[in-house]
Design a protein that fits this description.
The complex is a heterodimer. Chain A has four domains: 3-234, Thiamin diphosphate (ThDP)-binding fold, Pyr/PP domains (Rossmann fold, 3-Layer(aba) Sandwich), CATH 3.40.50; 240-351, Rossmann fold; 380-544, Rossmann fold; 558-622, 2-Layer Sandwich (Alpha-Beta Plaits), CATH 3.30.70. Chain A is globular, with a radius of gyration of 27 Å. In chain A, strands 3-2-4-5-7-6-12 form a seven-stranded mixed sheet, sandwiched between helices. Chain A has 20 helices and 23 strands. Chain A is an alpha/beta fold. Chain B has helices spanning 16-29, 77-86, 104-107, 116-125, 144-155, 163-173, 176-187; strands spanning 4-11, 33-38, 48-56, 69-74, 88-97, 129-133. In chain B, helix 2 (77-86) links the parallel strand 4 (69-74) and strand 5. By secondary structure, chain B is α/β, with parallel strands linked by helices. Chain B has a single domain (4-187), classed as 3-Layer(aba) Sandwich (Pyruvate-ferredoxin Oxidoreductase, domain 3), CATH 3.40.920.10. Chain B is built from seven helices and six strands, in the order βαβββαβααβααα. Chain B has a six-stranded mixed sheet with strand order 2-3-1-4-5-6, sandwiched between helices. Classes of the chains: A alpha/beta, B alpha/beta. Strand 8 (182-188) of chain A pairs antiparallel with strand 2 of chain B.
Chain lengths: 623, 188
C-alpha cells in the first residue's frame, strides 16, 4: 500500500492538499460505506482510482465497476435495501442511462442509506452536453447537496449519509468538474469504528419495493411527505447559510461553484453584499429564502446553467407578494458554460455597475491556433481509420460512438459523422440504412461501450436484418477515462469474448483483424460492405498508451522510434495528411522528421508510406 | 494581499500533473493558502492540458481569470504562446521548456508553428520576462518538467522555492525508483 492509500484509511485525524474526488473517497471510509459502484466517466473516475489504491483485504468496502450506470445504480440499490450503506457515482449523462431505475428510488425505503454522486460538467469539458441534473432531483423527489469546494464535497458526503439513513431516502450529491478536480487543504476527521455486519436485512415489509398500481399513490404521497420533512431540515441545515460583512439592502442567493467566483469578485470590488448560500439546494428552505427576500431591497439569483432557482424563487415571491426586486441573469449566454470569476463580474455589473464597473475586454491581439485532441502515437484506431477509409464506397455514411475513437471525427479522417450517446451507433445506423439504396452505412463502437449499451442496438440490427457494417474498435480497455477494466478485459472475472457473443446471437458475417494489418483490414471491410445484411468486423489492437506505460515500468525499457530516410522520401505527405500520427513534424523546408519525444516506435506508419521511406530506427526493433 | 497565480500548460502526457503537484505542495509547505485545479479527461489525449494554482492569504476560487496569471509555466512552445496571449498579465513572467509539438493544422499547413523569436517578440510587447529552457539528449521526455522546476528554483521568482524543497516533495510523492532518476537530474 502506498502513502496515499495509508492516508485514505488512517484512523486518526490528518490534513493535506487533496483533490475533491479523493476527499469524497475518504468520506466513504469515514462514514462506513459498504458498497460503492460506478461506470467510469469524467469528472468522477478518480473516486474509484482512490478507493482502489486500498487493497481489498484492507477495506470493508466492496467496490465494483459495473457494466453501465443503470446497473451500477441497481447494485447500490440492492445493497441498500439489504441494509448496507451504499453509494454510486457517475458522470452527468450517466444519469440518463440510470434514469429508468433512478426515478423510482425516491419512492422507496432504502434502509441502509444510499448516496448518488453526480459528476455534472458545466462547460462540457469532457461531455457531449452540459445537462443540469438539478432538474432530476425535482422530477424524482430526491434531495440534493451541491458542494462548491473539495472540503464541502467531503463534508456534504458525510451529511448526505446522515440524512439518507435518517429518512431512509436516496440523496444526491451533485459535484461539478472544477469541484471534483480542485485541490485544497482539507482537515479530515477520525474514522469511527464501523463493526463489520454483512447480515442480510432485506424484508419486503420495509417496502413495498415493487410499484404495483395500488401502491403508486401511497408511495408518491410518502415521497412528497418526505420532501416536506426535508424542507424543515433545509431550514436548519448549516450548509444553507447567510454570509454577511455588514447589513446591506442588496443580496445574492447562490449555490455550488459560482459562490467562489462571487466571493472573488466581492474581494476585488470591496462591495458589501449579503449572500444566502444554498449548499443543500433541494428542497431549499422557503422560510430562509423568504426572510432573505423580505430583509433586502434587491436580490440577485446567481446560478450556473439552467434557470431553476430563478424560477422557483420568483414563483415564491409572487405567491407571497414580496416587494423586493429580484434580478436574474439577463442573457442566454449566461446560461452557458461555467460562471468563472470574470463572467460573474459581468453579471454583477449588469445590476450593480457602480460596485462592479464594467471591464473592457482585453483586445485579443494574437490568435493562437487550436490544438484539438488526437489519438495517441501508435493508437490502433488510427491504423483502423486509415485502412477503413480506403474500403469505403463514395457516399458511405459513418456513425461514431463514445470513446477514444470519437476522435476519428477530427482531421484528417472525418469518420463517425453522427453521435448521440453511449451505444447509439447501431440504432442510428439502422435508421440511416432503411430503404437506403444509394449509400452504405458503417457504424463504430468501442469494446467498453459494446458492453455498456451497445448490445441492444446490435441485437436489433440482427433481428431486423439491417443492411450495414459495424466495426468494433476493440482496444481491450476503457481507454478515454483512464484504462478501467470492462467485461471483455478479463481483469475482473472471466473474460467475455465479444466474438463468441456475436456468434451466439447469430451475426452472419463476422471477422476479426489486428488494425496494424492495414491492407487486411481494408479487405475485411470491403467484404463486409458487400455482404447483404448486418456484418461485423472486430478491428482489434491493444491501447498503446496503456501498453507503453506498462513497458516503461520495466527495468530495461528503451524508447524506440521510427526514422525517415530523407533520400527516399518524395514528400507525398501520406504520413501527415492521411495517416496523421502526431509524431511527425513538418519542417519549413518541407521535409518531414520524427518527434522522438512522441514516437513510440510501434511502426504502424511504415506501411502507409508509398515509397517506404519510413523504417525502424534500429533494425532489431522490427520484431 | 493579492494572490499569486500560476498557470501551467502543455500537451497531454507531458507531466503537467506532477508540476502542479510539486508547486501546490511547495506553497503548502511555505505556509501559504493554496487552491489548485488540474485538467483531467478527454483533453489529455494530445490536447492542451492546463493546471491552475493560486496562492496567497485569501483564496476562494482555484480558477485564474484571463490575463491575471502572474507566472506561466509551460512545457511546450505553442502552448507557451497561448498561455501568454490568453492568461498572462502584462508585465508577468514565464518559463518554458522548449519542446515543440506541432498540431495537425501545423502539419497540414493551415497554421504556422511559432518560432522562439515569435515568442520573444510577443513577450517584449507585453513587457513579459521570459526564460527558455531546453536540454539536449534528455533521455526521458517525461522529465522535462524537472528541468522546468529546476529553472524556476534558480530564477528566485518564488521566495523559498528551492532545489531542496523540490527534492523533499519529489521524495514524498514519487515511488523510490522514479524518485531516484528525477533526483539525479534535479541535482546534476
Amino acid at each position: 500500500m502506498n502513502q496515499f492509500a495509508r492516508n485514505l484509511i488512517r484512523k486518526d485525524s490528518w490534513s493535506d492538499m487533496m483533490m475533491g474526488n479523493y476527499a469524497v473517497a475518504r468520506a466513504m471510509f469515514e462514514t462506513g460505506v459498504r458498497v460503492a459502484t460506478t461506470y467510469p466517466g469524467s469528472p468522477v473516475p478518480e473516486i474509484a482510482n482512490a478507493i482502489l489504491t486500498v487493497p481489498e483485504d484492507h477495506r470493508d468496502l466492496y467496490f465494483q465497476y459495473s457494466t453501465n450506470e443503470k446497473v451500477a445504480l441497481e447494485v447500490a440499490f440492492g445493497a441498500s435495501i439489504n441494509g448496507h450503506l451504499s453509494t454510486v457515482f457517475f458522470k452527468s449523462v450517466g444519469l440518463n442511462v440510470a434514469a429508468d431505475s433512478a426515478i423510482q428510488l425516491g419512492l422507496l425505503n432504502l434502509i441502509g442509506g444510499m448516496v448518488i454522486i453526480l459528476g455534472d460538467d458545466p462547460g462540457a469539458h469532457s461531455s457531449q452536453n452540459e445537462q443540469d441534473n438539478r432538474h432530476f432531483a425535482r422530477q424524482s423527489y430526491i434531495p440534493m447537496f451541491e458542494p462548491a469546494t473539495p472540503t464541502e464535497a467531503y463534508q456534504m458526503f458525510k451529511e448526505a449519509v446522515k440524512i439518507s439513513r435518517k429518512y431512509q431516502a436516496p440523496v444526491f450529491m451533485r459535484l461539478t468538474t472544477h469541484v471534483c478536480h480542485a485541490k485544497e487543504r482539507i482537515r479530515f476527521a477520525e474514522i469511527p469504528e464501523h463493526p463489520s455486519d454483512w447480515t442480510s436485512q432485506f424484508n419486503r415489509h420495509n417496502g413495498p419495493y415493487l410499484p404495483i398500481t395500488k401502491d403508486v399513490f401511497p408511495l408518491k404521497k410518502k415521497a412528497l411527505g418526505r420532501l416536506e420533512e426535508l424542507e424543515k431540515y433545509a431550514e436548519q441545515c448549516h450548509f444553507n447559510k447567510i454570509l454577511s460583512n455588514a447589513p446591506t439592502k442588496a443580496g445574492i442567493i447562490t449555490s455550488s461553484m459560482p459562490i467562489l467566483s462571487l466571493q472573488e469578485n466581492l474581494l476585488e470590488s470591496g462591495a458589501s453584499i449579503d449572500i444566502l448560500k444554498l449548499g443543500f439546494s433541494y428542497p431549499w428552505p422557503k422560510g430562509k429564502v423568504l426572510d432573505f427576500l423580505k430583509s433586502h431591497d434587491e436580490v440577485l439569483i446567481l446560478e450556473e446553467l439552467d434557470r431553476i432557482l430563478e424560477q422557483e424563487i420568483k414563483s415564491l415571491a409572487f405567491d407571497e407578494n414580496i416587494q423586493c426586486k429580484i434580478y436574474v441573469r439577463k442573457t442566454g449566454d449566461d446560461l452557458m458554460g461555467e460562471l468563472l470569476p470574470h463572467r460573474t463580474w459581468k453579471i454583477l455589473s449588469d445590476f450593480w455597475p457602480a460596485l462592479f464597473p464594467p471591464k473592457r475586454k482585453p483586445e485579443q491581439e494574437l490568435i493562437v491556433g487550436k490544438r484539438v485532441p488526437q489519438m495517441c502515437p501508435g493508437c490502433g484506431h488510427r491504423s483502423a481509420f486509415h485502412a477503413i477509409k480506403k474500403a469505403l464506397p463514395d457516399g458511405t455514411i459513418t456513425v461514431g460512438d463514445i470513446g477514444c475513437h470519437s476522435l476519428g471525427f477530427f482531421k484528417p479522417y472525418f469518420m463517425g459523422e453522427a453521435l448521440l450517446s453511449m451505444g447509439h451507433s447501431n440504432g442510428t445506423g439502422a435508421g440511416l440504412s432503411i430503404r437506403n439504396k444509394d449509400r452504405k452505412v458503417l457504424t463504430f463502437i468501442g469494446d467498453s461501450t459494446f458492453f455498456h449499451a451497445g448490445i441492444p442496438g446490435i441485437i436489433n440490427a440482427i433481428m431486423n436484418n439491417h443492411n450495414m457494417t459495424l466495426v468494433i474498435m476493440e482496444n481491450g480497455t476503457t481507454a478515454m477515462t483512464g484504462h478501467q477494466p470492462h467485461a471483455g478485459t478479463g481483469e475482473i472475472g472471466d473474460k467475455i469474448s465479444i466474438q463468441k457473443l456475436l456468434e451466439a446471437i447469430g451475426v452472419k458475417f463476422l471477422s476479426r483483424v489486428d488494425t496494424y494489418k492495414q491492407s487486411e483490414l481494408t479487405q475485411h471491410i470491403k467484404d463486409a460492405m458487400e455482404f447483404e445484411g448486418f456484418a461485423v468486423v472486430i478491428a482489434s489492437h491493444p491501447c498503446m498508451l496503456k501498453f507503453t506505460r506498462i513497458q516503461r515500468q520495466k527495468p530495461n525499457y528503451k524508447q524506440h522510434h521510427v526514422h525517415i530516410d530523407q533520400n527516399i522520401c518524395n514528400k507525398t505527405y501520406e504520413c501527415i495528411e492521411k495517416f496523421g500520427c502526431p509524431s511527425f513534424t513538418k519542417h519549413n523546408d518541407g521535409h518531414v522528421a520524427i518527434n522522438e519525444d512522441l514516437c513510440i516506435g510501434d511502426g504502424s506508419c511504415i506501411q502507409t508510406c508509398p515509397v517506404t521511406a519510413i523504417n525502424h530506427a534500429n533494425k532489431e526493433d522490427k520484431k | 494581499m493579492k494572490s499569486f497565480n500560476i498557470y501551467m500548460t502543455g500537451v497531454g502526457g507531458q507531466g503537467i500533473g506532477l508540476l502542479s503537484e510539486v508547486l501546490s505542495k511547495a506553497f503548502f509547505k511555505l505556509g501559504k493558502n493554496v487552491k489548485a485545479v488540474d485538467t483531467h479527461g478527454l483533453a489529455q489525449r494530445g490536447g492542451t492540458v492546463i493546471s491552475q494554482l493560486r496562492a496567497g492569504e485569501i483564496i476562494f476560487s482555484p480558477l485564474i481569470s484571463p490575463h491575471e496569471a502572474d507566472l506561466v509555466l509551460s512545457l511546450e512552445r505553442l502552448e507557451t504562446l497561448r498561455g501568454i496571449a490568453d492568461m498572462l498579465k502584462n508585465g508577468g513572467k514565464a518559463i518554458y521548456y522548449d519542446a515543440a509539438f506541432q498540431t495537425i493544422d501545423n502539419r497540414l499547413g493551415n497554421d504556422t508553428y511559432p518560432t522562439v523569436t515569435d515568442l520573444e517578440s510577443v513577450a517584449s510587447k507585453k513587457d513579459i520576462k521570459i526564460i527558455r529552457v531546453f536540454r539536449e539528449n534528455l533521455h526521458d521526455s517525461r522529465m522535462q518538467n524537472i528541468i522546468l522546476l529546476k529553472e524556476l528554483a534558480h530564477s528566485d521568482w518564488i521566495e523559498g522555492f528551492t532545489i531542496e524543497l523540490i527534492d523533499n516533495i519529489l521524495k514524498e510523492i514519487l515511488s523510490p525508483k522514479v524518485y531516484e532518476k528525477n533526483e539525479k537530474l534535479l541535482k546534476d
